[in-house]
Amino acid sequence: MPETAVAETDAGLSPKELARRHGLSASGRLPSLPDYTRQLWEYRHFIRAHSSAKMTSALGNTKLGAVWQVLTPIINAAVYYVIFGLVLGGHEEMPNFIAYLCIGVFVFQFTQSVVQTGTNAITGNLGLIRALHFPRASLPLSASLVEIRNFVVAVFVLMGIVLITGEPITVEWLIVVPALILQSFFNVGLGLFMARYGSKVRDVKQLIPFIMRFWLYGSAVLYPVTKFQDLLSGWQLQVVEANPLLVYIELMRHALLKEATLANSPAVLWIEAVVWTVVVGIGGFVYFWRGEKGYGRG
Amino acid sequence: MADNERVPTVIADEAHIIYKVHQAGASSSSPLASFKRLATRSKNSNIREVHAVKGVSFVAYKGEAIGLIGTNGSGKSTLLRAVAGLLPVSRGAIYASGQPSLLGVNAALMNELPGDRNVELGCLAMGMSPAEVRAKKDEIIEFSGINDKGDFSTLPMRTYSSGMSARLRFSIAAAKQHDVLLIDEALATGDAKFRRRSEARVRELRAQAGTVFLVSHSEQSIRDTCERCIWLEAGTIRADGPTDEVMKEYEAFARR
């Protein structure tokens, strides 16, 4: 019997050779990138269930429950309407400044919340990570999925605001879909990156509010994007205008506003958006995968 | 004959496990003290390394049930986590066939969600397909017995007693077929009736597949389920052999 023959020679083997002979694999070995992607795909149901579970458990103890998903962006827009529309009375050289502002705020907040929840995706779920076996990228992915769902709701609110402020419905509204998809992939990559980085360097969590504030001011959310052209020129302007969030915000404005002055021609914006999405999306995923086996250490 | 055909399922080769603990407020936490620590480049006292398992070697075979015993903090749970691949090994290696699954009482579920949603989530996290989950869900809730005293499965987990939630966790993990099953104290929870049921389930799992590791402080459940015992003390193996012998040594040690 072959099995007996194998077993008889087992004696005197080093543990490593014994393991190889019987086809045991070292626990905690990193799977290859295609394998990992496949595993993750098999866990898609878990990712979806985890994200909706998080959503319900976050809103579960409020009276209004899921209504908050719609209410939060509306209140958010209302605050800006009161400050910029009523108190400050609009922006002279900008037609429909409130719609312009709301688009910037909503798009920016999409990325901001992914960064915040992504940073906590590993450190906040150590119990789950140390107890069960699943591809760890499921956690930042489910966190991003929550934000993507929130943003889809917010976009509908946004469309309502844009209509109320007097913009017509045009064919260009369809651009919202590819812009949303590109930004979502960018955000997923960024969330994955932050999840690993935040689990290694806990201090980064303290810095994120400041980094995000800086990014906000650099993304032409609260003022017209043409300000940059008045102040900067040459390569400096190029660098500022290549800011991915500025690009995604501009695309959304291009889609929803009839008379928005854009930072660049739509063609340039699309190219920049695609490049950012590919680089950050894939880069973030690879970076996270490299750390897969170390997340349980804390 | 049977002895010759022993197939190893888990091999530990001089495994060391060191994990980092981030702790707040262990040392002086004034800004000045922290700054001094950075300036003098002394080691950050907020991050401590715990050398929990120090060079452990053993071979576990198919069809064995192995009890892990030892006083509190001797590294039993840490070792199980490393076998499951949940904690990385710092030095040495642990080899395992397939994917060992850890079944612990501290598996985090979502406390805000009702029990049945947690069953779904836990099953999906173990890699089941939605169809399997639907098929097994009622069986799991039935086995856990949380519905024995009214409809508890639709209430949030935070309303459960600790025994009830431990039972639910055990039932979720035991619903899946495992090559190597690692059980951490799970049998010690729950009432006598549930304990009998879960011990029967462990025997069933063991018969169906591979190897079972059991960490428990209950001498009785170790004696009932395991024929082999590994005694871990302060991260090293003190004894490894038939349960009766190891238990005798351990009891002599524990009485001192």
Structural class of chain A: mainly alpha
Shape by Cα distribution of chain A: elongated
- Give the H and E element order of chain A: HHEHHHHHHHHHHHH
Q: What would you report as the Rg of chain B, rounded to the nearest angstrom?
A: 20 Å
Tally of individual domains of chain B: 1
Largest sheet descriptor of chain B: 6 strands, mixed
Give unreliable regions of chain A as ranges: 1-8
User: What share of the residues of chain A does DSSP label as strand, in percent?
Assistant: under 5%
The pair of chains with the biggest contact is: A-B, 43 and 54 residues
Quaternary form: heterodimer
Give the SSE order of chain B as H and E letters.
Answer: EHEEHEEHHHEHEHEEH
Strand order of the largest sheet of chain B: 5-6-7-3-8-9
CATH class of chain B: Alpha Beta
Structure description:
- Chain B: Keywords: ATP-binding, Nucleotide-binding, Transport.
- Chain B: It holds the Pfam family ABC_tran.
- Chain B: One of its GO terms (molecular function) is ATP binding.
- Chain B: This is Teichoic acid transport system ATP-binding protein.
- Chain B: InterPro entries: AAA+_ATPase, ABC_transporter-like_ATP-bd, ABC_transporter-like_CS, ABC_transpr_TagH-like, Bact_Polysacc_Export_ATP-bd, P-loop_NTPase.
- The complex is a heterodimer of chains A (298) and B (256).
- With 298 residues, chain A is mainly alpha-helical.
- Chain A contains 14 helices and one strand, in the order H-H-E-H-H-H-H-H-H-H-H-H-H-H-H.
- Helix content of chain A is 72%, strand content 1%.
- Chain B is of the alpha/beta class.
- Chain B has a single domain, classed as 3-Layer(aba) Sandwich (Rossmann fold).
- Helix content of chain B is 36%, strand content 27%.
- Chain B is built from eight helices and nine strands.
- In chain B, the strands form two sheets. A six-stranded mixed sheet of chain B has the order 5-6-7-3-8-9, sandwiched between helices. In chain B, strands 2-1-4 form a three-stranded antiparallel sheet, with helices on one face.
- In chain B, helix 3 crosses helix 4, helix 4 packs across helix 5 and helix 5 packs parallel to helix 6.
- The chains are: A mainly alpha (298), B alpha/beta (256).
- At the A-B interface, helix 1, helix 2, strand 1, helix 4 and helix 7 of A face strand 1, helix 2, strand 4, strand 5 and helix 3 of B.
- Strand 1 of chain A pairs antiparallel with strand 4 of chain B, so a sheet runs across the interface.
